[in-house]
ABC-2 type transport system ATP-binding protein (Methylohalomonas lacus), 307 residues
Amino acid sequence: MQPIISIQQLNKRYASGLHALKDIDLEIERGEIFALLGPNGAGKTTLISTICGISRPSSGTVIADGHDTVSDYRAARAKIGLVPQELSTDMFETVLATVKFSRGLFGKPQNDAYIEKLLRDLSLWDKHSAKIMTLSGGMKRRVMIAKALAHEPQILFLDEPTAGVDVELRRDMWQMVRGLRDNGVTIILTTHYIEEAEEMADRIGVIRRGELILVEDKHTLMEKLGERELRLQLQQPLASIPVALSGYPLTLTEDGSELIYTFDSHSDHTGIAELLRKLDQHGIDFRNLRSRESSLEDIFVSLVRAS
Ligand SMILES: Nc1ncnc2c1ncn2[C@@H]1O[C@H](COP(=O)(O)OP(=O)(O)OP(=O)(O)O)[C@@H](O)[C@H]1O
């Protein structure tokens, strides 16, 4: 299948001289949820703005559903819905008028049935005649999504969709985004909440200092880079790791109460049995043993830290 977005050798230099995007190559598959991760200032918003045609590339091309985002801007933009980080709308307007107006901006004929379905899908229909200023923060965010989808785009960009939102609302948002994907919308989101990417994304892209350093299927990424950790809660705290154990990948917690052993989850030989024997030989008793797999967060932190 043809990718819905195809980005080739994309570069963006700001007037200040800052090289914000460096030789980005990326294809987004139709119908996927793609999460773009990166530390502050990595270039996520710049990448989204450039794909959406809001910011012009310095070089390279972006094709959105068959249309070049520079030479065929209007057609490309019509395929895209963008939910920006900041709430940006007329707070005195009603929900329905706001969403209808957005559709009109793209020259689409009025379609009351579509707008009603959209508002119902986003649990906003009850509020269609309410002024936006009277809505809760979560509802305002939904209105921003309804606005972005008013012209029936195939692609939806969500820039930090749940920043500052409480856990419950975040889960609602996730469910709603999945619902949109099930209706055939391709979704690209940026997030600081790694948990969000872990929960939602089919694929993950990591951007660091303007470079896309990794694009991978989420499960493959977690399998490939994941490590397991064994934590041994000691009966007696240790002041330091005994010399006899210095050859093992062990760390001691600051208070000396836990030994942490890290091992490759795919290796046939974990070395755990041998480690436990050694501990026994040296009279190190433990009262509890827990194992944990590294999360996407651990993987992400190690990726962006590596220089
Ligand atoms: N209009 C602009 N002019 C000059 N530099 C800019 C402009 N917009 C962004 N930058 C710079 O480009 C770099 C990338 O910024 P961008 O906002 O794309 O990062 P981000 O990954 O979205 O960050 P955050 O997670 O903080 O939102 C930063 O160094 C930023 O200061």
